[in-house]
Structure formats: C-alpha cells, structure tokens
Queue: 4 jobs
Job 1
Amino acid sequence: MDDYKNRSYGAVGIGMKGKVGIVVVDYQLAFTESKYPLGGAPLVMRGLANTARLLKVARLHNVPIATCFTAYKSERDMPHWKVAAVRDQFRLDHPSSALDPQIYDEDYDVVVCKSGPSIFFQTPVVPYFIKEGVETVVITGCNTSGCIRASTIDSFQWGFRTIVPEDCVGDIEEGPHRDNLRDVGRRYADVSSADEVIAYIRQSTR
C-alpha cells in the first residue's frame, strides 16, 4: 500500500504552462569527467547527454537557460561541506570547476557560480526568469539527492511550476536518485522526461 498516495500526496499534477526556463545545475567537469573523485557516474552521464539534447532544442526556440557551477575562492568562504572532494577541488582556479562543453553555450546561457546546493540561493537566476516572463522551470543537472532536490524546492517556493525530467538529472547511486524524485514528485514538482519537455517547447513556441 502507498500510504502517501492514500493521504493525497501527488494527487494534483502541476503541468507545464506558459514560458519555460531551464536551469542546468552543476554539470561541471568535477561531476562529468571520471578523472575526478566525483566524476563520471553513469546516471550523471546519462543526464548530461539528455540535457544536451534538450538544450539544443531550447536554444533554437529562444528558451531562457541558466547554468551554474559550484566553486569557492578558498575553504574559508565555503559552507561546512562534509564531502572531502568538494573541500579539496571545488575552487575557482581548479580545472574541475569548468562547465562541461556538452551543455554550455557561452554566447547564449546565463552563468552563475553558486555557493550552496540550490541554483537559486543568493544568485540572480530568479530575477532573470521573472524578467523573461518564465512560468515553468525545468530542473536539470546533478546530483538528484543534493543540488537537484534543493533547486527543486527553491523553484517551488518561488512560485514557479516546477518540472524535473528524470532522464536529465543524475546521482552517484540509483537508490537516492529514485527516492528523491519520488519524494519531490509527491510534493513540489512533476517528474517528466526530456522528450516531454522538448515536445512542450516545440508546441508552445510555434
């Protein structure tokens, strides 16, 4: 039995409506290149490939895109991370901080450096989306159980319709990936797919 369902969790769909904006969370080399301690997880690489496919269509239809990476000047200005690789390598001058070229178009995307899990926390992404008239925010990136979950909740709290394409996000392990998507899908967002978002973009921007 699904007691959450019996108590009405997930009973109301959000749906995509109005103009779409896409956030791309932390598809930086630290997570996408296997030579780094956090890099190259299979679910993350699947998410990277599907996000690249989604973004190609989004740019053709003038969809606002905000992408981010996480980096710090020194350990002094970073939060109290419990992840050793973050403390050791997530520095502004470290090559692992660079955005993966598969998802980044420097002539199109708005780029922010974030200091916490959410792309919206103390960054200009919300004002940018408001200026662009965005009503629906699509969340892509990694990791599902950390920065994707945090960004999803912040998007919800800012009043955006929030969509998480399952195949555009990834994590180190499948269990946390599935568990967190199931939970945000009960409460804050619709869990969708790259193909569904692409179809909406094409239909809504004719």
Job 2
Amino acid sequence: MQNHFQDFLIVDIETVSGNENIEQLSPTLKKHWERKAGFIRNPEEKPPEELYEERAAIYAEFGKIIVIGMGFYHEHKGKPALRVKTLASDHEKELLTDFKNFIESKFDQDNLKLCAHNGKEFDFPYLCRRMLINDIKIPWSLNMTGKKPWEVNHIDTMELWKFGDWKSFTSLDLLTNIFGIPSSKTELDGSMVTKTYYEEKDGLKKIEEYCQKDIIATAQLYLRLNNLPLIDPGQINIVK
C-alpha cells in the first residue's frame, strides 16, 4: 500500500461567504451579487440578501476558504493507516500560503496525485481561484494551465463513481451510506458551515473537526471504489 499511495493526498476544503451579510459588500460587489442571484435556481424566490448568506460560499468570487483538510495513506505496524491534518484560519491568505508551502515541501510536485470528492468541479478550481485573488502562485500539482489532460494528476471520487455518466451529482454522504462508511454529516453539514462560522464562538473549531471527518470519509470511499479494504478506525490518526 505504501508504494501504491506514494505522493497521494486526499484534500477537502471548507468555505464560507466572504462577509457575514450582503450589506458588508462594496456597492460594486453587491451589484454583482444581485446579478448573480438572478441566475441561481431559487424556487422559493428568496431575496438576494438571503441567498448571499446561504449560497455565496460556493462561489470563489464571493466566498473564502477557512479550512483545508489533508489525508495521507501510509502503513503503521504493517497495516494500512491514515494520517489526517487540517489547516484552519480566519486569514485566508495565510491559510493558502501554509497549504502551498506544505505540499511543495512534502511532495514531489510532478508526481503528486490530489484526490477529493467533487474536487474537479469544486475543491481544486476553488483553491486555484482563491490563490490568484490572494496573489499566491498556484502549486504545479494543483495548476492545470498548459497541461495535457493526462498530465493533470487530479482524482475525483465522484467521477470514479459515475463511470462516465455525467447526468447527476452524487453526494459524499450518499456514497458513504451505501458503502457502509461512517458519515461525516453528524452535528454539522455543508449547508450549516457559514452560519456556524459567523454565529458561534467556537465555529472555526467545529468546522475544522467536520473537515477532518470529511477527509476520513473520502479516504475510505476511495479505497472502496478501488476494491481495497477500509482502514480500521484505530489506524486513523489526526495530527497537528
């Protein structure tokens, strides 16, 4: 297992709206959000102010990253194991810089494989966009610019599950349920992250713990999708 998963990293990000509410936006950015809100599916006809609090986090132009989770497969006492590390900060530029420095110092950028659930549609492009906004050079392993498709080492567990069927989104929670993997969605789920961050005193800590569970769930799902045994909970270690 150790050789198979050398230079292999599970990634998950947690994002929130860039501001607590729409009134904190500049007049220009507020206008852009109001225009964006007009294109968002909105069957309940919620006003732009409410949509901002509920949906801005998923758009890199209006959101920010507050937690980045990472998972590393390895062997411990001859058995498959998983090491989980999270970076969390209220200061996005500092967070992204720490992430960039970590992966560039710990992994061979030419061979590093990045794996996430819905990563190709969300995590990887979101990271790249927010790095550019924060004037950070995108790490080679993350950047797709100028690369041929087979040179991009990005793995998406949702894409693996689709087997070429692009009709629908399949959540991590659904897949962990059908594969008998413990869910990360317990006291918190993705729809609650922004509210938790801005309204609860220990919100960032709660979101960091939620991200750790997402990393574990994604790591276990990847193994099941490759007909490999799950990692025993006793072999999962959360590190600083």
Job 3
Amino acid sequence: MPVNSVTWLANYSTAVPQCELHSIQLDSRKVGPGDVFVAIAGVAQHGKDYIDRAFAGGAALVLTDSGAYTDNRIVVLPELVQILPALVADFYQHPARVLQLVGVTGTNGKSSITFFINQLLEQLTVKGAVIGTLGYGYYQQLTALPNTTPHFVDIQRILAACVRQQVQLVAMEVSSHALVQQRVAGIQFDVAVFTNLTRDHLDYHGSMAEYAAAKALLFRAGVSRAAVINVSDDYGRKLAAQCEVPVWAYGKAEHCHGFARYLAYSDVVATTNGYQLQLSSHAGDYSLHLPLLGEFNIQNVLAAMLALMVQGYDLTSLVNACNRLQAVPGRMEQFVFAQQFTAVIDYAHTPDALQQALQSLRLHCTSRLWCVFGCGGDRDRGKRPLMGQLAELFADHVIITADNPRSEDVMAICEEIAAGMSPDASYQIEPDRQAAIKLALVSAQPGDVVLVAGKGHETIQIIGSEQRQYDERAYLRQLVTEMSL
C-alpha cells in the first residue's frame, strides 16, 4: 500500500522529501526498502541511535522528535510522540473505520473469546481475524507476535492488511500492560469486552487496585463505543456500574437481572464432552449444547456471542453455530488415551485460572483428578504457595514441576509452591516437566483426568537465558501414540 510522503505529511511538516513509502516501523531491524523509521525514546535507548541501521535496511524516511540533521530524509517533529497515533492512522488510511473492531481485556479468557468470535464468524461465512497471545491473522494460521497486544504502529499496519484481505471483523486481546503503555492509542473499538479480574501481573502493576484501573482504561468514552461485561465477576459488576459507554451484560442468570441488554446462562449439566445449558436474553431464550470443557468457557462463549450481537449479528444463528465450536489450542484441550483416561492441556497460570480449571474438570472426571503444574520464575512469587494450596484443595494428586524458571532455581520455585500445601498432601516434586507429565500419565487409571497447566499453546521453555524449543501439545500427541502401542 504505497503512500506519497508529501501528501501524507503535508499537515505535519513542509520539509518532506518526495518519495513512495510502504510501511512504518519502530524497530530498525524490521525496516525494509521504502519504509518509514520512527526514531523515538524507548525503554533503554532512543531510536536516533539506530537511524544508520534503518537507512542500511532501506528506509526512505526517518521521523524523530529532536536533533539537527543535514540529511533531508530525516524529518524532525518535536511533537512526534503526541501526534504519532493520528499520524500512523492517517498513513494507513484509518483501517479501524472500515473494520468492526472488538477489544477483549481481563485476566483470563482473552484468547479463547477472540478465537470463539472468529469460529462463530466462520460458521456465518464472515471473514474475521485475531490479534493476541497466539499471534495475528486468520485464527487457524497465525503469525507470531512478541507481545499479546502490539504497539499501535504495528496494530495499524496489521489492520490495514486485514482491510486489503477483505476481513470484516478483528477481535483483539488488549492487555493491562498495553493499556498503561498506551499501545492502543488512537484506536477506537466498536466493542470492549471484560472477562474477569483475578491476581496476575502484580510484579508490574503493584496492587490489585492499579491492575483494575488499567483494565478500566478500555471502557472510557472515546476508546470504545459499547461494553460487554461479565457481571458474574465481582469487579465486572463494579465496572458495569461506572462504565462510560452502553453496557451489555453477560454471566449467570441471577447476576444479569436489571440489565436491559444481556445474555445469561442457567441449568448447566455437564456431559462427557461439554455442557447442556439454558440461555436467556433480551433477544429470546434458547437451549444450548457446548462441546467444550470448563464452565468458564460457557462465559467465554457468551462473551463472544454478545460481542457479535452488539454488532448486529442474529442470536439464533449464533446459537446454531455454537454446536461446532472447538477448543482453543492449549486451552482446555483434550487428549484421550487408549487406557481410557484423559489429559487436558490448559494455559492456566494464575490462582483463579488453576482453580477454575480443576473445578471444571472435576465435573467430567469419574475417578481421580491429577494436576501437573509449576510457576514462572522472575514473576509474582506471592501466587506460588496460593497455587499450591488450590491444587491440593481441588485435585486428588499433584505433581509440581518447572514452568519457565528463567533465572531462578527450579527446585526453589517448586518448594515455594509446596509451602502452601499441608504436610499430608498428596504431591510430589519432579523438576523435569516432561518427566512430570509422563509420571502422571503412567500412573493414571481409567476414568482419571490429568490437567497439565501453565504452558498451553507455548512452544518454548525459558531456562536461565536460554529459550528451549518445547511444544507441550506435540509432546502429549507423541505420548498418546507411544502409550497406545
């Protein structure tokens, strides 16, 4: 999508060389021929230090906020940081105005909701895309991202590509970090979705109050046009009461009373492969079968459905499409063994997510419930004993192992988890993650369910400064084959 530099920057500067531009880059390593390199202050260094590298990569133009240069390809705009969101949107011709845009925030469920939105759209023959933890693009063929929510410079480029590909709706995860760091500046969402708020990222935010305040930034007037809020979550009810934009509520039926626009569930019955339940809403009542594990997935699906209802999609069509939903990779994903037990991989890495996963699987478990998990190093240490306590409370047997230990000692992390457990708890420590998983599986009996929590979709394990290739889903598939021989 080439852009004429003189036309584009006419409102911002008169000293612009005439050239054809292709995309805007913040990272000099990603600059290609015809690109614009934006040289502004980063966390550790200023982008001006990389101008030469950008030109070596083929940059046609550099924008920066200070300095004096004789090279007319370097344009100095003192107010660059302030005007950059509008400038980037102008460059890409405001793709957010063309697309339906859904932003999803909350501690747990963001990836699942964006995927369910895209699966439902596919059933309705509407082209969608996702941006989030698992990558961006078509939900079954994603391009990896370094962060859950990219910088707005990268988001605008992705959205522009979606427009060219005739995508109609993009569902994007919006992390608390991204909101505080203004990574979605200049982007207005048609719908903002709130899932839940539980302990996470306190190493960054410092307190639950600050963490909640970060999430609430997505629900301001001018940032979003409508809010879809889980009112079965304690903070969700508070957010709904103070929200600046129209609220559409979802959750358990008893929590949705009093809302004019809502989607609620009740009469939940667990089946061997999912749930049967009743839906009630301002648009009618339905019986629904969901082929998914985990009651929290009921709420995730309702959030996806309601976000689409806000955009005008028909509830009856959405209910019919739900019958064909599939688990998101690494989110309550089932692996059935010939020995008649089941392993489930889930990304649960917070106390609340672990508790919900175990409580949900208990409903589908006819014998013992196993839990294999660890905690990440160089992250919130306070949750470790709490997760140990919850694993003991909701599982029959626990195997504590490594997650991403990073610079910390694996055994020290495992022992901090075990410190939350009683002396007579049924647990053991196996620091090698693959060995821990295999130990649980060779010990499992018919009717058992083994939850392997924490890694989910991830394909690396961080040990020290090394990023080792580690695909837990591939390992489980391998074990299903090996143990069936």
Job 4
Amino acid sequence: MSGTSGTYLGMPAFPAAAREAVGNETLRKNLRHATHTIRDKRAKAVAELDDWERLRAAGKDVKDRTLRHLDHYLVQLEESVTAAGGTVHWAADAEEANRIVTGLVKATGQSEVVKVKSMATQEIGLNEALEAEGIRAYETDLAELIVQLGDDRPSHILVPAIHRNRGEIRDIFAREMGSWGRAAPEGLTDTPAELAEAARLHLREKFLRAKVGISGANFMVAETGTLVVVESEGNGRMCLTLPETLISVVGIEKTVPAWRDLEVYLQLLPRSSTAERMNPYTTMWTGTTDGDGPRDFHLVLLDNGRTDTLADEVGRQALRCIRCSACLNVCPVYERAGGHAYGSVYPGPIGAILSPQLRGTGSEVDASLPYASSLCGACYEVCPVAIDIPEVLVHLRERVVEGGTVTRNGARVTIRPAKGHAAERAAMRAARWTLDRPGVLRAGQRLASRTRRVHPKRLPGPGRAWSDTRALPELPAEPFRDWWQRTRGGAE
C-alpha cells in the first residue's frame, strides 16, 4: 500500500471527520445493515448460555489479575517461549518494533511476506515500514485484502471493510488484483461466492510461495508459551503453518496466566465477535517443532504506550479488551460516523478510550476522541470483559479539559488544557457558584420562567455551536418550587 491515503496521518479531529461521514448515504446504509446484522446474531449466540454473566465476570477477573502482575507473567512468558524454541524480542514503541521485524525479514533474504489480520501491526504501521525497506506485505484476511487493494483504511476491528458493499468490492477486485498478483476472473460478479473464489485463487499462490509469515495473536499463555489465533477463513492457518519463518507482533496485554484461562475466552470471544459458538479455525502453537510448521519463530512483545496506560487506575481497564468489536456494533455514534472518523486503527467506543491512552491526548484528533460518544452505556452492556467505557470516557474528558502531567514512553509530558473549553469551564464554575446559593438559584429560576417568551431559539456567540444541533428546552410556566408550594401547600 503506497501513498498516504491508507494511513491515519493527518486525519482531522472526530467532529470534522464525523460531520463529513454522516453526509455519505451509502456509507451509512452499509454500516447500518452490517452492524444490525452482527448485533442481532450476537444476541442470539449469547442467549444460549445461562452462565454468560458469570463468564463475563471471570473474563474480567482474569484480565485484572494478569494486569496487576503483568511483569511476572511477561517474564514467565519469555521463559516459556524460549524453552520451546522461540526467540523473544522486546519493543518499547512502534519504531523499535518495526526495526526488529524488518531486520528479521531482511535476515531471511526475502522481499515479501504474508500476513494474518493483526491490529498490533496496523497500530505500528508495519506495512509502511516494510515497504520502505523494499519488502512487500500481502494481507490475506479477506476484508484486509479488500482494504489493501483499495488503498483504503480499515474501519472496523472485526470487519475492516464493513464500509464497502459487494458492488464496490467487485470493482476493487477487477481493477486492482492484477497489479498485486493473480488477476480477478473475467466477468466477475458481486455474488459472495464469486468474490470469495476470486480472493482464494489470488491468495493461494502467495501462501504456497511465501517463506515468511507475520501475525499477531489473540492470546499468549504465560505458563506454556503458547500463542493463539482465532479466525474464520483459514488464511491464518495457512500463514501460521506454511512459511519457514513466523514473526508474531503482540501487545503485552494479550497475556493470560494459564492454559485453563483459555476456556473462558474461547467462549466469550467468538460469541461476541462473529456470533459463533466457536471460531472455525483456532490455531495454537508453542515455539517450534521439527518437521511441523515454521523452523524459526520470533515473538515481538509490544509496549507502545501500554505500560503508561497500565499506570492509570481508571484507564487501565481498556487493556482488558479482547478485540471482539461488540461495542462498535451497538454504538449509535459509530453506526453513523463509521470507523475512519476516529483517526485510528482502533475505531468505535474502545478506540475512543484506547487510542488517547496509547498515543496521548496532545493531538487534536486524540483530544477529540473521548467526546465521540453519547455515554449511552450500550458498549458496557455488551463488552464480554466488562470494560466500563463510559467511565473511562469521562475520565479522559477530564484529562483533556484540565490538562496535567502524564508519563508517555517513559518521559513526563505536560498536557495543555484543550483549546475551546474555556467557555465550558467558565460555565461549570458559574453553575457551581449558583447551586451553592439557594436564594440565587430560586431567583434565577423565577426570572427565567417569567421571561421565557423572549428566549431565543438558538444561543448566541460560542453557544451557537451547541444549539445548532440541539433544540433548547422550553421552560415551564412556573418553577417547580412555586408549583409545589401552590399545589401541596408545603414549605420549600
């Protein structure tokens, strides 16, 4: 993928990006159809389990315990992977991770790699880093393939091409497949079977030729050094078993202590993501084995802001995320704005709390993300590991408004209060002063009710931005205190 259209660099803040997205009727139709279909199927799959809430609590508890002792489990993981024949590399940030991976690929003498769908490699911009070193990365997940061929950006955690319909996908395949390998068949239609067959034929030659595979992982088991990838298409199985060298880039928070913990997550994840009882392909590997699978295995443990996030007692719960995308499929904001508006590989509610913590709130786009929510709480209700996303959103809004000092990649960084919030802070101070003085509040309410006929329909000055998209509430004919005293005859 060349150029800048496939990256998130230079994206506008969420309000501007969302304003443009909601004007795209095709996008909104695609998103509405896809998210409603997935959420309805998920609800049925979850309803099959009588102990869903207990599973959810267990998933939360295991993750919390792991995060509290993450230093211990990471050391154990490294020892287990090494004992099984793998090599562990530690990457403090995206630059170091990219340097490690490109170095490992170049050491094999290869100029192309096949990839399993991976949020971590998207987060660090690995494809662009490989391209800069003359190495071409081929995405093999169907939705990621669509995004790559279209020189596009992912817009969903589970279904990166959710913003595309079948007609658009057919056009992309017919136009671009030939320049990346095997061309699409002549007369390709937009039926799902034909599109899937075109992708299968295109990818098969890459699977059989590739000497290097790159993946992420859904889970890493500390006690055994086992990595786990769950997927639905079989492309992951091909990438994880056929190449001679396998390189896995995984966020440190994907660690679980013991093999038995997988029982919980292998029930929670498929039902929450693909609405299946279990994923069609669950691949597990532990180091290397003679005559079976890759000869060389490298695990790159990625920090990239995770340790800093771990230090935040409220925000750290975002690290429980198992990337199921259930929160995206119920979010009314995501459904209308789409994933690109979030300016990050992590869109939707989880992206609104994860990206500002991993990247900091210093940029305009990251400072805007905690506000990309109505705080309706639907995301919390469906989260399989009970992340209280609304709580973290409010917490991050406070950080944006108040500023302060946080740790970012090992250094103390001062966050300046966001521009445009001066009026909001002044209004909150005025409200606090008024609410502390009952007499002032009483007089203000009576004055407001008696002058309601001359109240404007829109606020003037800075308030115009608020009232342009909201109707000002109508004031009642009399204050509640007056009504109570008149109808009940009691004291205030």
